[in-house]
Amino acid sequence: METKWRSYNPSGNRRVVVTKELPGKRWLEILGKADCRVEICTSTNVLSSDEIKTAIGNCCDAAIGQLTEHWDEDMFSALRAAGGIAYSNYAVGFNNVDVVEATKQRIPVGNTPGVLTETTAQMAVSLTFASARRMGESERFLRAGKYRGWLPTLFLGELLWRKTLGVIGTGRVGEAYARMMVEGHKMDLIYFDLHQNEPLEGYIAAYGTFLASRGIRPVTCNRAKRIEGLLAEADCVSLHTVLDETTRHLINAERLGLMKENAILINTSRGPVIDETALVDHCRKYPNFRVGLDVFEDEPELKPGLVELDNVVIVPHIASATGWTRQGMATLAASNVAALLMGYPVWQKPDISAFLGEDPPKAAPSIVNAKDLDIPIYDNSKDKM
Ligand code: DGY
User: Fold this and answer.
1) What is the pLDDT of residues 203-213, one digit of tens each?
2) Strand arrangement of the beta sheet that strand 290-293 belongs to
3) Catalytic annotation present for 270
4) Residues 332, 197: Cα–Cα separation, whole Å
5) CA 129/CA 160 separation, integer angstroms
6) Tens digit of each residue's pLDDT (9 = 90 or more) over 311-322
7) Does 80 lie in the same domain as 213?
């Protein structure tokens, strides 16, 4: 299949390669204003490293890449050799990027945090209830014309109200998910994180006080010392870790074995955090164990047996797929690249909403190796309050 490309602002002096069409127009306007000629791949197939290197050619100032591509030493050498000085992932996660190699090549690496938080947390909530209430399985049953009338025993699922929620990783998404589940369904929270999450603990304590003031039993929040304890106690466990060598196969056969037989396991982080082969075996053995997955170990492939399992709900890595979020990600990726090409400093606050407004700061919203590359930090003391 021939890979197709289109060009935006062909008279621009700086050349930026973007490996997929991104939603909205604003990102193109940002790059246009930075005097960029933008070459966009309009084909939907995942580009190989060779195809991307061919697109980079011998003259390329910057690139915006996808989480499906491997941005390794070879790719950053090619970008550097073509004169490239900036890269942004079109994603908040950057496990597909060798940041150490990019740093060696003196190429800053951007990502797109802050616009995926609620959207991804909502998908984790959706998968939680789709799994608990057997929505995939019952919809297939109905569509297959098998529904013969209401029955007291048809598709009994799990009620999560007042049960125990386990959240592994309480960064932005994990914390948003925890709040949605605790507030909406009065669940007690156990979380596992390398760092104590004081804002989350404080929030749930305050919510508990509010509930008590209304004569309602408060909810609780506890930080687990060990993952094993959380897995054994929780009725529903949701994964929100980054993927690195410490989290690969964090959930393996042994740890699955610690979970309740009717527990629910949700993954919207990265596929390899779960040993998917062990998961298939576990789901076969325990039909009341329910799983909701947005991400897969060998994406886009699924491990043998996964699609046949009725106790697993699967969606194709769409947790961040709302128009607002995907356009926001495009704005942030383009702002990262444009700011680096213009020699601007890097933003320092976790709140990136200023970049989505009318008068964005002259800064790169999020550069993960900014410190290692000594990129100056934006001084926001002069900004309008
Ligand atoms: C990300 O940005 O890392 C998400 O996985 C995209 O959905």
Assistant:
1) 999 999 999 99
2) 221-223, 188-192, 164-168, 236-239, 264-267, 290-293, 312-314
3) yes
4) 26
5) 9
6) 999 999 999 999
7) no
Beta bridge partner(s), residue 17? 39, 63
Please give the structure tokens belonging to residue 84: 């490239």
Question: Ligand 1 centre and the CA of 326: distance in Å?
Answer: 10
Kindly report the pTM of this predicted structure.
0.96
Q: Show which of 314, 340, 360 is a domain's final residue.
A: 314
Q: How far is Cα 44 from Cα 316, in angstroms, rounded to an integer?
A: 15
pLDDT at 382: 65
Residue whose CA is at the smallest distance from ligand 1 atom 2: 91
Choose, from 14, 133, 185, 270, the residue flagged as catalytic.
270
Judge if 30 and 44 occupy the same domain: yes
Q: Any idea what the CATH number is for the domain that residue 45 is in?
A: 3.40.50.720
Centroid of ligand 1 to alpha carbon of 181 (angstroms) = 21
Token duo for residue 249: 């196969």
CA distance 125 to 105: 40
Could you count the other beta carbons within 10 Å of the beta carbon of residue 326?
Answer: 19
Domain containing 67 equals 5-115+322-382
196's CB contacts (< 8 A; 6+ apart) are 223
Distance 77 CA to ligand 1 centre (A): 25
Q: Distance between CA 262 and CA 256 in Å, rounded?
A: 11
Tens digits of residue pLDDT in 5-48:
999 999 999 999 999 999 999 999 999 999 999 999 999 999 99
Q: Is 282 a catalytic residue?
A: no
- Cβ-contact 367, 338 below 8 angstroms: no
Side chain identity at residue 209, one-letter code: T
| Residue of 14, 15, 317, 326 with catalytic role | 317
Boundary (domain end) residue, out of 314, 341, 374: 314
317 labelled catalytic: yes
